[in-house]
Amino acid sequence: MDQNNIIIVPDVHCRDFYKPVLTVKDKPIIFLGDYMDPYSYEGFTDKQGIENLEEIIDFARNNKNVTLLVGNHDCSWIWDALRWERTSYLYYKELHKLYRDNIDLFNSCIKLDDTLFTHAGVSDGWVDHINTMLEHKESSLRLNQDNIITYIDNEFRNELNRDGVIHRGMSCPYLESPIFDVGAIRWGDSTYGGPFWDDVREYKDPEGWTIKQIFSHTQLEKTGSSVTVGNGTCIDSRAIFEYDLENKELHPADV
Fold first, then answer.
1. How far apart are alpha carbons 238 and 189 in whole angstroms?
2. Is the model's pLDDT at 171 over the cut of 80?
3. Which of 93, 125, 135, 159 is most buried by its number of CB atoms within 10 A?
4. DSSP assigned state of 178
5. CA-CA distances (angstroms) from residue 42 to 37, 56, 72, 190?
């Protein structure tokens, strides 16, 4: 398998643009999350989204080269939380079961060599906020590019074990861990968004970090485009990309 050329599938949102990757067997494939939540003007339905999600899960189950990340909209179904959804909550039980029955396939983030893949990115403001919070708690832990994967994944898994324990704020439920922070630019009550909710408009490289970051979440004006800020690149959520891990080159995929 060619480990250096990675296929990246950004936010699916019930669309079917991802389907060409189902024939790819010789490269790593990373889905960046947000499998449901269709845009009505695009013509895709909740039922189509569920069928597509089932197909993606089956694909990942049968191909070890596939990694499924979790996006902010997936949190609505993994937990009954953060419900800013266009998907009808009539499907909550069905989707909750689908995600939970296959939760072993879903990841909060992944780091390959010195490239970090998340749904929405890890920015300097959020890292500074977490480190200040840890300092106030008199913890010796400080987030850096070497321990960020462990921190996010531990927080994510801890929240899974707290299923059903949901606090309420704003007009909807939210999850306790700061990895789910929703920033003000996304109408949340935190100053900065976490790795499920960061916005490219507020992204800056965390101070001292040299790793490359690739994320989606923010739908860009032009289909198949990308925006690079520092070492972080936001890719549009309607096209498949390919990433050369060795040379750090990103371009639309030919699949």
1. 28
2. no
3. 159
4. G
5. 11, 20, 20, 31
